[in-house]
Amino acid sequence: MNEPTFVIPLWADLIAVGLGGIQGALFASGFRGERRLDLLGVAIIGVVMGMGGGLIRDLLLNTTPVTLQSNWYLLTATLAALAGMLMAGLFHRLNAAIVGLDAVVIGLFGAFGTSKALTLGLPIVPAVFVGVCSAVGGSILRDAMMGLPTALMHVGSLYAVAALGGSLVLAGSYAAGLDLTTASIIGIAVTTVIRLLAVIFDISLPEQRALYRRKVAVETSAIPIVKS
Amino acid sequence: MNEPTFVIPLWADLIAVGLGGIQGALFASGFRGERRLDLLGVAIIGVVMGMGGGLIRDLLLNTTPVTLQSNWYLLTATLAALAGMLMAGLFHRLNAAIVGLDAVVIGLFGAFGTSKALTLGLPIVPAVFVGVCSAVGGSILRDAMMGLPTALMHVGSLYAVAALGGSLVLAGSYAAGLDLTTASIIGIAVTTVIRLLAVIFDISLPEQRALYRRKVAVETSAIPIVKS
Amino acid sequence: MNEPTFVIPLWADLIAVGLGGIQGALFASGFRGERRLDLLGVAIIGVVMGMGGGLIRDLLLNTTPVTLQSNWYLLTATLAALAGMLMAGLFHRLNAAIVGLDAVVIGLFGAFGTSKALTLGLPIVPAVFVGVCSAVGGSILRDAMMGLPTALMHVGSLYAVAALGGSLVLAGSYAAGLDLTTASIIGIAVTTVIRLLAVIFDISLPEQRALYRRKVAVETSAIPIVKS
């Protein structure tokens, strides 16, 4: 309705959905033992990761979910999840691929969330919040459905900080007069780079009182609970 | 607002809500030990199962939740949950009743979700998606609130496939020219039959690589985690 | 849009958000071992508790989330979460503070949810439901994100009953002709007092069949799962 000026082109949105679907399926197919999922379960996680960010964004903005207005989103997410499953069979160590894709996906969803919120006239602080929720919402849903502790809370490697940084830079650039497309590209780059640097250099936030480090790998963070 | 042509009569909607409430309370009262719920907890799970499907459907469609527009939905869900609690005391083995009711409930919610989405003009793929989310959404909420692994992901007995099959047949029949009421009845039947056959013949989807089977019973799927 | 007559003043809303933020951070910083959160995790839980009730209320009512229409809500929730973290360092036993604050917070969110629903014209039963969901929604989100069993289901000390009681009294007083502000103040008081009395006198609901009691303290309820 009031989104005529909204700027995300369909192809960009579908790339985010597709990468999210692949990433989700790669992640979900990495479990063994009790948490091993059947084929449908892996596909569902892929779809959740591909569609989740956009759905949460549109729920928070109280707009009709864009991802349900055309057949393309679900078809893309599903095909991407299937591709992710096949690719999972080709790799022994998936962590690098999972983490790398994840960095790009949270960058894309964060930027799309923030820029859509700004376009709809939200003030800068809630616009950044919507961006962060879009970026990390898919993984929160994924962890809840897989019975894992929320990675966001425990991974310790600036996961949400990366999304927050990119969204802040995007919103700041836009407030400073940059056009939304350029600001979005900068925001995506900032999130992706922060996330990758955090993983590469094993940086984590200080705990409340103690200052010990955890291993960063995605699967590692789940292991204490899996015990299968 | 734009739902004058929407076809679910109140009595049909209330039947779905009531059966969902009974099923939820039966399920929730089946736990012992650490996961045993107090009376209010059982009632809450009943209400969640009775109301969850409709709420998720209307959130995804960005329409005002129908279930909150009249007193009847909540009263029905609550009374049904109380009835479910009382019935739970009469049976020793609840699995047959739980699984049978569940098959009908996911059929009803799936059909109502898909048909409402079609009525609102959604394309066929997202309409089917909304139907599946309506069908399985209540049980996802239930499992999350009870701290159980999402049954959908682990039960392995074509739980979501049943919802998907019925929704696809409904949407296909409607696209082929059938009226929505007839298509909905067919869809409900397809979902219920697939789900019951899957349970009776212990059919499950292949895992990603291995092909082993799990026991299908609802409670069984929860046991590895419960360990009470 | 259709909320010109809606009565919650911004300062009252921000008090609820702030108290929720403090309470969430106090709660989240009380965990040790495997569930210990880093600084960002504690802040996130604070924001979730401060913003969750209002977001869930507005999602159920299908209105644009008020908490995202100004910068103040998120700033308040974030600052309150930081304050909660600092305060957590000053106390050894946090339970009294956590439980006391919690009683006030569920009273405020319950009353705001019920009164907003009544203002928007919902019937009395769903208006009470929206109030209860607003009151307990933040803690459900918190528990889901922290991988804890839903406190609502297991704490056993009339947690949801307190929210239900206050919402019922509010809606009843309003239906009996009282103005909404007075009814809301009464509702807040009823919820807070019920919740505090339940904790002080260690009252819990009967289980389904057995009648044994559990210790009420918030952390205690989590311990059987934490095992860190």
UniProtKB/TrEMBL annotation, chains A, B, C:
InterPro entries from the UniProt entry: Gly_transporter
Pfam (any one): Gly_transporter
Membrane topology recorded in Swiss-Prot or TrEMBL: Multi-pass membrane protein
Record bears the keyword Nucleus: no
Main localization, broad class: membrane
Location in the cell: Cell membrane
Protein origin, superkingdom: Bacteria
Membrane-spanning segments: 6-27, 39-60, 72-91, 96-114, 120-141, 153-176, 182-205
UniProt domain Glycine transporter: residue ranges: 10-87, 101-171
Keywords of the record: Cell membrane, Membrane, Transmembrane, Transmembrane helix
Statement: the UniProt record of this protein carries the keyword Transmembrane helix: yes
Family: Belongs to the UPF0126 family.
Protein name as catalogued: TRIC cation channel family protein
